[in-house]
Amino acid sequence: MDRRIARGRSLTVAAGLACAAALAASAALGQPDTDDPYETPEFQTCLQTHHATADLIKCEVAEEDRQYALLDAAYKARLAHLKGPARDTLVADQAAWSSASDSCVNHRHGRWASVAMQGCKIDQLIQRRLQLQGH
C-alpha cells in the first residue's frame, strides 16, 4: 500500500477517534460543546442527546438550516439600512460570498468526513452573519 494512503487513513482514523473522544467527554460531563457561543441552543441540546454519527449529522444539518435563516435575517436587516452604491456593494459581496461558501467540500473519506464538513459549513455561516452584524 502506498505510504501516503496509509498515512492518510491513519490520520482519518485518529481524527475520528479524537472527535469521538471529545464528544463522549462532553456528553459524560453533561455539557454541550460550548466553544462557539453563536451556535443555537437547539444544536447544543442535540449534540448532548445524540452520539451516533448519523444523528450528529442530522444535528448539524438542522443547525445549518437555522444558521442560514439567521444569516438571511442579518443580511436583510443590514440591507434595509443601505441605499445606492453601499447597497449595491453589499448585494455583490453577498453574492460573491454565497458562490464561494462551498470551500468546506473536500476529499476526505471515512465516517467523520460528513461531520467535519457540516461543522465547517456552520462555522462559515456564523462568521458571515457576524460580519454582516458588524462584529
Layout of helices and strands:
Layout: H1 3-28, H2 41-49, H3 53-80, H4 84-100, H5 113-132
Helix pairs in contact: 2-3, 3-5
Can you describe what's shown?
The protein is mainly alpha-helical and 135 residues long. It has one domain (3-132). The protein is built from five helices and no strands. The protein has helices at residues 3-28, 41-49, 53-80, 84-100, 113-132. Helix 3 runs parallel beside helix 5. The longest helix is centred in the middle third of the chain and has 28 residues, at 53-80. The protein is elongated.
Key structural traits:
mainly alpha, disordered N terminus, single chain, elongated, 5 helices, 135 residues
The domain tally reads 1
Mean pLDDT: 76
Q: Calculate the terminal CA-CA distance, rounded to whole Å.
A: 48 Å
Unreliable segments of 5+ consecutive residues? 1-34
Give the class from helix and strand content and strand pairing.
mainly alpha
Helix content estimate: over 70%
Question: Quaternary arrangement of the chains shown?
Answer: single chain
How is this structure best summarized?
The protein has 135 residues and is mainly alpha-helical.
